[in-house]
Design a protein that fits this description.
This protein has six helices and eight strands; from the N terminus they run αββαββαββααβαβ. With about 250 residues, it is of the alpha/beta class. The longest helix has 27 residues, at about 30-55. The termini are far apart.
Length: about 250
């Protein structure tokens, strides 16, 4: 209200109260600050969701081994190199179904089964079909100091070394080296315990038939709540629960 004659209101005896800028008040409730923090959190959350959505649509080349059953009783395997382009948002089941559809004419054992009857295994861990590649790479799994899922979107070192050329090598020497490499590769592909560090696709029926043999006897289904740093793959003891879901 103004003065009696309609003029400006009289000045306050103590002036206008306000905050002293030299005093720390960040521990006190502040509605304006809380609104700003909430707005920033909502914006950051939206940016994170957009970044995740973009990442899930990105593709990478997955290098894997197909465990082809061989022998009269299908008790043995031969590991064959393959590469497929997948999205980070694709599930393991999507990959197995695509692999089966693309190669059922080459590998007759895949004709009468679906992707659900195939397995994807890496470092002795059988990955459930519902996991996406982004999920398992984000969760990680450390075994003997190595994150076994970190290199899924990278080319295996031995595959890169196979394609390298030696400086000063002529055509005949290169041909001999190629023959030796293929001979060694063939010998390694027939060993059950070789190439376990590379993801493998295999027929579930073959696995069930040979699961008591080494190395399959040590395999287990991947459990994101298990801390593999202290409970090894195939450990018959109680699982060590990792409450952070990241081992």
């Amino acid at each position: 209200a103004g003065g009696a004659d309609g003029g400006p209101p009289p000045a306050s005896k103590f002036g206008k109260f306000g905050k002293n800028p030299g005093v720390k008040t960040d521990f006190l409730p502040d509605r304006d600050r809380e609104i700003e923090d909430t707005r920033a959190a909502i914006l950051l959350k939206a940016e994170y969701k957009d970044a995740i959505k973009t990442k899930l649509e990105m593709t990478f080349v997955l290098h894997l081994m197909y465990w082809k059953p061989r022998g009269l009783m299908m008790q043995d395997v031969k590991k064959v190199k393959h590469s497929m382009t997948v999205k980070y948002g694709d599930t393991i089941g999507d990959l197995l179904q695509r692999f089966r559809d693309a190669h059922n004419k080459t590998y007759t054992e895949l004709k009468n089964i679906s992707g659900e009857q195939c397995l994807f295994c890496k470092e002795g861990l059988i990955i459930p079909h519902h996991f996406t590649w982004f999920e398992i790479m984000q969760r990680g799994c450390t075994i003997f100091g190595k994150n076994v899922f970190a290199d899924l979107d990278q080319t295996p070192r031995e595959w890169v070394e196979d394609g390298e050329e030696v400086e000063g090598e002529d055509g005949e020497e290169r041909g001999e080296r190629e023959k030796e490499r293929k001979k060694k590769e063939m010998a390694d592909s027939l060993k059950l315990y070789s190439h376990l560090e590379i993801g493998g696709v295999l027929d579930r029926r073959w696995f069930d038939r040979n699961r008591k043999d080494f190395p399959m006897v040590k395999w287990e289904v991947y459990n994101p709540r298990k801390d593999y740093r202290v409970a090894f793959v195939g450990d018959p003891g109680p699982a060590i629960v990792n409450v952070d879901h990241v081992s």
